[in-house]
Here is the input.
Amino acid sequence: MTAIDPRAFRDTVGHYAAGITIIASVHCDEPVGFTCQSFYSVSLDPPLVSFSVKHDSTSYPRIRETGRFAVNVLARPQQELSSQFSRSGADKWAGVRWSRTPKRNPAIDDCLVWLDCTIEDEHPAGDHLIVIGRVEGAGPPERGGGEPLLYFRGGYR
Ligand SMILES: Cc1cc2nc3c(=O)[nH]c(=O)nc-3n(C[C@H](O)[C@H](O)[C@H](O)COP(=O)(O)O)c2cc1C
Here is the structure.
């Protein structure tokens, strides 16, 4: 079996276009979150979703401690937010408008939709951790409008 070169692997899977989310929680009264493309829905009944997070994420250990998170699905004009939340150590929440979901997670203003989740399970996988979340709620109530922010071949679409 021929092992694929990491760069070639990255370039190849980059042809799979996906939306972009910010996975967020509130830890010790401080909002915490990171940009995440690996989100997907897993099961309808029970309602489960998943994402993969790098082992060296500094945000995820804090999210894990809270046991819950919101998935914020970004809209087309929110490219700057995606970049801001991908910089480890930066003040990711500077200038960001958000409110609390019913489960007290951060709902970022003007995102397409958000999902309120509790952490159901975790599975180590290579240099990432696969996190399974149980969906407890969704919003905003008037969802349905707006275009998505997409990521394809290393660029925003
Ligand atoms: C478009 C895009 C998609 C990303 N998707 C993921 C992802 O699915 N999983 C992940 O762990 N990191 C992903 N990242 C990188 C994280 O956002 C980044 O490593 C994280 O914000 C680091 O901050 P932290 O140390 O606060 O966790 C993505 C970055 C970008 C720009």
